[in-house]
Amino acid sequence: MIENGSVLAEGYVPPTPDEMHLPDLFAIGSFGVGKQMLLVLLSVVIIAGFFLWAGRKRAMVPSRTQFVAESGYLFARNSLAKELIGAHHFKPFIPLLFASFYFVLVNNLYGSIPLLQLPSFSHPGSAYALAAIAYLSWVGVGIKRKGLGGFFKDLTMPSGVPVWVYPILIPIELLSNMVIRPVTHSLRLFATMFGGHMAMMVAASLAQYMIDSMGGVGYAAAIAPGALGMFLYFLELMIQVIQAYVFALLLAVYMQGSVSEGH
């Protein structure tokens, strides 16, 4: 059977995005609450609970839990905030970068946890919302630090460029920084989480189909998609961590541009 240019096994129905994004579990008035929303709320509890619990004693000689929490904080403080924003400006932005990294990380890792098995940012709405917060943050900081005119001047008029180039360069820079930047910031996170999880679902469903429809022979035939599914599982696990870092890294770069002079 040929469907959309692809040859599909007779009777095999590949998974769809609707199977990943389940219907709302319940509604509060006209506001639906689904699995992903509950996972997002759970991530806040997990992150706050862990770091508050780990730092409750504040011992000079830290326990293993306190050491892990302090290492996590120092990573966000030094590797993201201080190194990228600069030693003179980084301190006010530590909480934002710290929260962004671990919030994205926990919500991504849901996709690799049995039973939960759903990265929150595989839904475009959640990725857009987080990118919008990041967008408003660096734009707001830039306008506050430089004024409206100074912010857009630094954003669209790089130093060292001939004046006659500005009529061409300004629209390009404005489009690139004010439109393309926030869109790609969200799409990068959403696309990797959605694509990786969908690929793993296809491999798992294909292995299950072979076992169910082909009997004993199906167990042997299912080895290939099963092995592919395991490979994709660990690949997705790595990408989940990388994408959390990339999201916070880009936010730090944008913040650096908002507080630094010049372009």
TrEMBL record:
Source superkingdom: Bacteria
Major localization listed first in the record, in broad terms: membrane
Molecular function terms, GO-annotated: hydrolase activity; proton-transporting ATP synthase activity, rotational mechanism
One Gene Ontology cellular component annotation held by this UniProt entry: plasma membrane
Compartments reported by the entry: Cell membrane; Membrane
Pfam families attached to this UniProt entry: ATP-synt_A (PF00119)
Membrane topology: Multi-pass membrane protein
Membrane spanning residue stretches: 37-55, 93-113, 125-143, 187-211, 242-259
UniProtKB keywords: ATP synthesis, Cell membrane, CF(0), Hydrogen ion transport, Hydrolase, Ion transport, Membrane, Transmembrane, Transmembrane helix, Transport
Family of the protein in this entry: Belongs to the ATPase A chain family.
Protein's recorded name: ATP synthase subunit a
Organism placement in taxonomy: Bacteria, Bacillati, Actinomycetota, Actinomycetes, Micrococcales
